Amino acid sequence: MADATYPRTIRGAQASILYDEDKLLIKHDQGIEIIEDQCIIAITNRIPLDPSRDSRERSILIVKTDETTGSGSCFEAVEATGLPASLEEWHGIDTLPPHLRQTSFQDQLNIHVVISTRSGTGLGEVFFKDVVHPCLAALGLGNAYETHRTKSERTVTKLAESIFLPRAKSGVLQTIIVLAGDGAVVDLVNVFQSGHLKDEASFVKPAIALIPMGTGNALANSAGINRDATHGLRHLLRGSPREIPTFKAIFSPGSELLVDEARKVELLANDGEGENGVIYGAVVCSWGLHASLVGDSDTTEYRKHGSDRFTMAARELLSPSDGSASHAYKGKVTLILDSENERRADALPGQQHMYILATMVSNLEQNLTISPHSRPLDGQMRLLYFGPMPEERVMSIMGRAFTGGSHIKDEAVIYRPIDGLRIDFDEDEAHWRRVCVDGKIVRVDKDGWVEVRMSEQSLLDLIVIK
Ligand SMILES: Nc1ncnc2c1ncn2[C@@H]1O[C@H](COP(=O)(O)OP(=O)(O)OP(=O)(O)O)[C@@H](O)[C@H]1O
């Protein structure tokens, strides 16, 4: 570890170095340089890692803004000596974390990088080239991982079925670095949660490291991964695995998953009991305005607008351009509330609804704090609900959700912990029977239902700083 009495140098030249918690102020011959604290991934022994080097020679690993690269960012390992003790205390690491360390053959560690090529505005590939690979290479891991790129909506599921799940079952430690939004994680969750792993003695949970590249990035934003400017790399180097709590949504027979911008449908996986379909989630299950706007905005055209696509679709739903009124969603919504030895089912009053959302996370987007009481990966499902109301009123409630989460204080909003949710649909038009599970859209059959419950066990971990 560094020694603050050692000569202070940056990139080999003498410098004065001041650290005031939100930035590192460096004065050297060429002038003043500032490294924002939020750009620091970690401080390690000098890169490339070499145990024979003086351990007082350090590298500050940073993600920098760089207009010349495709992603607008680049990685740099800044050589330094004599760094302030407070900076070392905050960011210093002595060794790589276990999930990045090469192990002996018996505990074989597999590191995979999955790049979702259509996430968000499609920056995954360039961000990998500009930042993630250079960072891993600097850590001596340049040849230690396998890279997979998505070619279709099914790629992540296929990878999980053919590589990650079989290896996890045979006891191989795996770290999966995912450059994507919530979609890729949810695909992994679905393969693992339905993998019948209860009796697999040798099963080892893979650890997922998220490099948020999606539109909403709800999981990353809610787990604190996006709080700094290193796009998940700080968590990859300094975090440890924590369970991803998940839920199970069971759908009535005939329910279909909409894919390829709703041009095609797929059958849901069978839940093993009768003809019901099942899909697992880790973020959100919704019906009404939220599900409709996610479904409507999942097109190549809308995706060009980043997260604005959700607001654009919401406006069209609340104030349709054909002049018609916004839709009141018809059905029976029942809250499932478990106590020690009893399962209570409380039907919400009224048959018409607007916003019905069961969430496991605090933030659906970086600034959209839908559930301010949720803590990272706390495993508690919460309901956010309101009934039909005029557009301005909805926009005012959602506006408060975008500015800290005070919308939960609005008298029209129901916000509370729940153990599950059931919806019995009473809609003639299939369009209004769309349910969103973590961004995926399921269309329920006429007179159908969905029931959501917490999963008993979680079979994947997320690498986060606790
Ligand atoms: N090459 C590809 N061809 C077709 N579909 C793809 C391809 N790559 C990824 N996809 C699909 O694109 C979607 C991207 O989802 P992802 O969650 O990663 O990003 P997002 O939807 O922008 O973000 P978020 O879920 O955080 O809002 C997924 O449904 C994924 O299966």
UniProtKB/TrEMBL annotation:
Residues of the DAGKc domain: 106-254
Entry GO terms, CC: cytoplasm; membrane
One GO-annotated biological process of the protein: sphingosine biosynthetic process
Family annotation (InterPro entries): ATP-NAD_kinase_N, Diacylglycerol_kinase_cat_dom, Lipid_Phosphate_FormReg, NAD/diacylglycerol_kinase_sf
Molecular-function GO term, any one: lipid kinase activity
Pfam families (alphabetical): DAGK_cat
Record-linked SMART domains: DAGKc
Database matches in PROSITE patterns: DAGK
Top-level taxonomic group: Eukaryota
Protein name, per record: DAGKc domain-containing protein
